[in-house]
Amino acid sequence: MKTELQIETAINSIEVGFSDYYENMVKYYQLHHSDNLTHTDFCNRTNRATSPLTSSREAVFYAVAYSWQHYQTIQSFLSVIDVTSNIADKIRVIDYGCGQGVATIAYLEYLVARNVATESEFEVHLIEPSPLTLNIAKHLIKKLANIHKLKLTIYTYQHSLDKPIFFKDSDCSETVHLLSNILDIKSVQNSISTISSSMRDMAGKNFLFATSPCYLNSWQGNNLLHESMSFLDSIIQRNSKLNTNMYSIVNDCWEKRSPKASQLFAYWDNNQVESEGTAIAA
Ligand SMILES: C[S@@+](CC[C@H](N)C(=O)[O-])C[C@H]1O[C@@H](n2cnc3c(N)ncnc32)[C@H](O)[C@@H]1O
User: What class is the 2-269 domain?
Assistant: First the structure.
């Protein structure tokens, strides 16, 4: 019960942004050592955070151990292209395997920091098998939308990515696909053809940001996704290094870290047509 309340408390503590949630979680974690999961317990139960989380203690652990790094990784990755120029009036954001919604939050706060977030209306689609983290993501994003006065609607899909999703028709002219720390997961890799065929049919401009820790599995995931997307107009694959200050659950202190990520950025435009009227394919 204490940890369930903590999640609510951390969401309510947000005054400016996600950093408030993270810092509130870290303080709680430091004050309640005997209630916390150990790193070994967490990794064994969740298969290193790749399985859906099932308890609020796991959600607190994940927020403290990984969320800040993932949030910042997405924010630095977004600068690969200028997502803020000519920003569309209506944007669909799809967060695949969203967990607590860190990638969507990082994207929205990136736009807020550049003073463009209120120019657009957002349709946020959250896909995640864990009802616990899906619910946290929904509440966190709602809270941030209220604080920053964002025009935003949230749609949740509580299932895994092997199930195709039929998005309702909408007038969004741009879709941002966020795949944060999921392409290294075997069950996600097995669903890549389902994921890429739904991406292919998405009208308008499409931007895809996929980032995962620098493991061999992540490169395999990136390559599988790339191979299944013959419709791309452009693609960048890269390794990145982030310099950040974060709390270490192993050493129980704040420390400088430089986590590496393997990333894939892709762009395609389903509005572009050649003079003969056929869609341009890469
Ligand atoms: C490492 S976490 C990443 C969460 C979040 N995207 C982030 O960056 O913080 C991996 C997430 O993938 C989800 N997941 C695992 N297998 C999945 C599947 N087959 N389909 C959809 N999501 C899956 C897990 O429930 C978990 O939330």
Answer: alpha beta
